[in-house]
Design brief:
The chain has about 100 residues and is mainly alpha-helical. It contains five helices and no strands. Helix content is about 75%, strand content about 0%. The chain starts with a helix and ends in an 8-residue tail after the last helix.
């Protein structure tokens, strides 16, 4: 379904991307209760993935004229917005936040 939304054919690579997303989310949930450095690593890793995906969407728009909703729509914008929001929130937490109590 996701591949069709982007305008691509189905591929076994979709499973690999899904597993990468699962890994990023596991790190993010762990980082929520750990150090600033782990939060930075969680945001940095997922941001590089998302910004790389955004670059891929731009490439597809320019070279293949792929303006499918999943390539040139909300997915593309979120690939840029989510990393920006992540770094802004991390910066605000660094500047104003108190450390969270260790729950684990």
């Amino acid at each position: 379904m996701a591949a069709a939304f982007i305008g691509w054919a189905d591929s076994p690579f979709q499973f690999e991307v899904g597993m990468a997303s699962l890994g990023f989310s596991a790190v993010a949930f762990t980082a929520a209760f750990r150090s600033f450095d782990l939060r930075l690593a969680a945001i940095l890793g997922s941001s590089l993935f998302l910004l790389g995906a955004a670059a891929g969407h731009v490439y597809q728009m320019v070279t293949e004229r792929n303006f499918a909703p999943g390539n040139a729509g909300i997915i593309f914008y979120m690939d840029i917005i989510v990393p920006l929001v992540g770094f802004v929130l991390l910066g605000l937490q660094r500047r104003y936040g108190r450390p969270l109590p260790r729950l684990i």
